[in-house]
Amino acid sequence: QHKGFGLTGPSGTTAGTLTKAPGCFMYEAAADGGQRTLLIWPTDYAPVEGGQAVQGDGHVLHVGDEVVLGGGEYTDEAWVMDHLIGPSIADGCRTGVYALVTSVVSSRQP
Description:
By secondary structure, the protein is mainly beta. 8% of the residues lie in helices and 48% in strands. It has one helix at 77-85, and strands at 12-21, 24-29, 35-40, 46-48, 53-56, 59-62, 66-74, 98-108. A hairpin with a 2-residue loop joins strand 5 (53-56) and strand 6 (59-62). The termini are far apart. The relative contact order is 0.29. The mean pLDDT is 85.
């Protein structure tokens, strides 16, 4: 989780299907051959519904939802661990691609 950026920070968008691995939420992008990307949420987001959804900032996103998220992607795992997550990430959550979530643009159930 991160503390947010106020009016600054990455401003791209990423889209895919919200998925879950033990200890983390990811999205899977069909356009990228099913690449799974670990989602790094703002601190006010938390798992709900027995870990099958994540809630924050007035949104509830369920596993399987098609989501468009604001933020940016990072591939430098060492930098992500040092600056955004910390070393306590589960091995199954290490995807090599990480998305810093700054907003939820849209979500819909399939």
